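Technical note accompanying the year-one report. For the benefit of new consortium partners, we illustrate the data format agreed upon in the data management plan: each record pairs a sequence with a structure-token string. No post-processing was applied to the example shown here.
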Amino acid sequence: MKIKEIFEKKKFVFSFEIFPPKPTTPLDRIYSTLDDLKGLSPDFISVTYGAGGSTRDRSPQIAIDVKNVYDIESLAHLTCVGSTRDEVVGVVDHLLGSGVHNILALRGDPQQEAVSPFVEGDFSHAIDLVKFLRERYGEKIAIGGAAYPEGHIECDDPIKDLHYLKQKVDAGVDFLVTQLFFDNELFYRFIERTSIVGIEVPISAGIMPVVNKNQIERIVTLCGASLPKKFVRILHRYADDPRSLEEAGIAYATDQIVDLIASGVRGIHLYTMNKAHVARKISSNIEILREGFVNDKNSEGALL
């Protein structure tokens, strides 16, 4: 099933992101994670492609196994930086031939050792990949796109960034998944702006439970997510107590999700960091809300 059809059929969509292990790490670990995640009944699971496609040899097969072995709809990330059209076609044809019909079209990040990371290849931006996929495959695939509630870290003009997102949607994106954020008010303002510019596709909110101090430092460096005072207080209070920090991070993410569901968010995309036990706790915390959403006639239309 295409993910856009899941959004059409369900008021609330709950999904996970996983990433392939490094090439030197056995695959058993990720399949053990998937064994645990399957029991949480996600609507789909996305599989990342790695920086500069560094795990590209593993990503498609894991995405295929999510669909065919675990019987869960799969969203295959596809980055275009440094890729040729023929390479993209090879990957997408393989996915389609194996039953995966959902692609998250991304520019991607360069490999760390790359000297001129965005020069080679047939695509410069995610919108180029979206146009190519839609023109070549039509409605055979559902295309997802990334959205940035606080603006893309490489764009210092939020209005320009928003209009670029609108162009990407108009080029063929069926649904959006946001970058992680820790302040729901920023997300709500972002949703208001998307409505103003005419973006009507469903938007799933990206939530990452922060469970260790090093993780948050990497996140802020990579994507520039702002940290609310409440969140900073948690980090300071439990900085030297990993177990308590994990529990506090799970509680904070749960509070975010509860508030988002109450506001009518179309979906939650949980960045699991391959930590199935964290996903399990959060899923348990919101289980009743997920069940109630199915029969709640008042839950439609609050956001998108």
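Partners are asked to follow this layout when depositing records. Residues 113-119 have pLDDT under 50 and may be disordered.
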